[in-house]
Amino acid sequence: MAKREPSINTENFTAVQLMELDSCSRCGECVDWCPTYDASGRDPGLAPRDKILRWREYINKSYGLRAKLFGPKAIPEEEIEQFKNDVYGCTTCGMCATVCESAINTVELWESMRANLVKRGNGPFGKQGAFLKLIGEYKNPYMADNKDRTNWFPEDVKIEDKAEVLYFGGCTAELRQRKLALATARVLNKLGIKFTMLGEDEICCGSALIRTGQYFINDTAKVNAQKNIDNIKAKGAKTVLYACAGCYRASLVDWPRLTGQELPFKVVHITQFLQELIEKGEIKWEKSIDKKVTYHDPCHLGRHVGVFEPPRAVLESIPGIEFIEMERIEDNQRCCGAGGGVKAGIPDLALGVASTRVEDALATNADILSSACPFCKRNLSDGRDAIGAKELDVEDVIVLVAEAMGIDLSDTPAE
Amino acid sequence: MAMEYFSGLPVNGDILRITFVQIMILANLAIGIFLIGMYMNLKKWGMGSTGYGQSPSKSILAFPKMLMYQMNEHAHVHNQSVLETFVLDIIFQRRILRRSPLRWFMHFTIFVGWMTLFLLSLLMFAVEMTYMIAGQFGIHTLDPSLFREMLAVPNDIFSYILLTGIIIAIYRRLFVAKVREATIAYDSILLSGLTLIVITGFVADGIRTGRFWGFGLPFEWAPPAALFHVIISLLFCIAYIPFSKYIHMIAIPLALLANKGGE
């Protein structure tokens, strides 16, 4: 009789990740802090602790003592399908990792579970399945003509053919949140920074594929990362600027991992770049923004890579701004709800999380809820609209910088 | 060979006597089961890869390789040293303290009590072994019965420290609704085992010394009580670790090291 095969396998898990499943002490801190568990009305399946427990049981049923002695125990397909739904109900914000007493790198654990389930034929979730085709075909997930990334810039914007500084705009800013991309370009122009862009040669950074566990299919994410790196090198760039937290994280963490090589350029978020110029006294503010402003840390910029201070330093240096913090900030920040493919896959859940975050901002009586990520801006704006908080503006830090530098963005073209 | 084992028994009488051989057989059995369990865990962990996105390694060396790789990799957030992780995160357990001072106190008392009693037991064993082996060559070393008396006070102190943590843990599991509702057999077995070890330890000691914890039980019961305590301790302290939630004693320090103290 043929030996029964395990229902699941260990594809896409590292040996340390399999060990981490055994290191969960079930303290429950992750459950207390998980934004999607909270926004789902406390659906037990979304609790991070529960996901670790279930996957550990699957592994033990497949490869544990009992499996070694008597063969693997079958896991019902419906159970695995439910698990898939639950593991995709996560924004990969990393709050669970921050509070985990066992220091489990949960974000990468969820991503490995997703990749494993994609390979198994269960994942991804809903509309996320279109990412691969869209990115493969259009080089962006918005089904937009890739030429439209930069061909809409007004004529006054000066983009060099080659330069030591390159602005990697990202799909969302170039194709959907153009005010942000225009603000970044005009701020750099006004500061006299010669910069270049990839234009139609820019390809999606891969964040959407990586976060949803689809990065390995046809090696798309790796191939695209390498193409972006090669194109950036060809432009002569030594410093690459990002105004998108997702692209920044993907470039800094994921590209070297995918390609197996150190990046031949420096990865810098625009707020880090501006902070340095502010400290050197090289930015001249022309306008006062007399508003109360609070700041939402994007997960991919803050918790994932530790950039907390630069956006705050930039906001605090803008004349007139009364900077006020929300209760949950930096390491303890509450996610906006858009990440991890949730915005595309489970928009209601994304909206629920965003609404809670907007309420955090409203509690400060701020006039403006700022962030440093176009994807956060999009979802926070949706959350603001969902709860009817018309009095609250949602705006990116770079747009506020442009305004304070006296830059007009009223000619931003529509999508 | 019926050398008496000094840890908690009288010599006279026909009562069940704990001998060196009995203890050595038990200890080796426990260590053997532990090693087999850890081998199986390493095999299970080794079903993973030695790099992100790579194919499963299916080698027992995959785990140590990946651990070393991660420990040497540059972390983007908390790039702290192994020493800092060891002292502050593994020994001092500051990640628990950051989340809940009460839970930290509970866990820290259990950790300190458990580990110290384990080390004191090892020390007692070492003194006995030295005494017996050196005695064969006519060399006089520290008398184990004297050493046992020296350990009486620290044993008492750390036993009560351990008991304090266990009482808090039991209270939480029984009376804090959120904790009670989340408790599963995986958690209960750990706490039950720990409680059993501590209670049997106190009772065995109480019978031998005639103190409160002996509950007035006859002195003759001291050896079987001590033997029972030793068996339970060896089973839970060593043999059962790889197969239960006790694995967290090994896995959490490893996770802390792999992730440089965590995010």
Could you please describe the fold and organization of this structure?
The complex is a heterodimer of chains A (415) and B (263). With 415 residues, chain A is of the alpha/beta class. Chain A has three domains: 15-123, Orthogonal Bundle (Fumarate Reductase Iron-sulfur Protein, Chain B, domain 2), CATH 1.10.1060.10; 127-276, Rossmann fold; 282-404, 3-Layer(aba) Sandwich (Rossmann fold). Chain A is 47% helix and 7% strand. Chain A has 20 helices and eight strands. Chain A has helices at 15-22, 29-33, 35-39, 48-63, 65-70, 77-87, 95-99, 106-120, 130-138, 171-175, 178-190, 207-211, 220-234, 245-259, 270-279, 309-317, 342-345, 347-362, 374-386, 397-404; strands at 165-168, 195-196, 239-242, 266-269, 292-295, 322-323, 368-371, 393-396. Chain A has a four-stranded parallel beta sheet with strand order 2-1-3-4, with helices on both faces. In chain A, strands 6-5-7-8 form a four-stranded parallel beta sheet, sandwiched between helices. In chain A, helix 16 (309-317) links the parallel strand 5 (292-295) and strand 6 (322-323). The longest helix of chain A has 16 residues, at 48-63. With 263 residues, chain B is mainly α. Chain B has a single domain, classed as Up-down Bundle (Fumarate Reductase Cytochrome B subunit). In chain B, 69% of the residues lie in helices and 0% in strands. Chain B has ten helices and no strands. The radius of gyration of chain B is 21 Å and the shape is globular. The termini of chain B are far apart. Mean pLDDT of chain B is 89; it is low at 1-11. Chains A and B meet through helix 1, helix 4, helix 7 and helix 14 of A and helix 1, helix 2, helix 4, helix 7 and helix 10 of B.
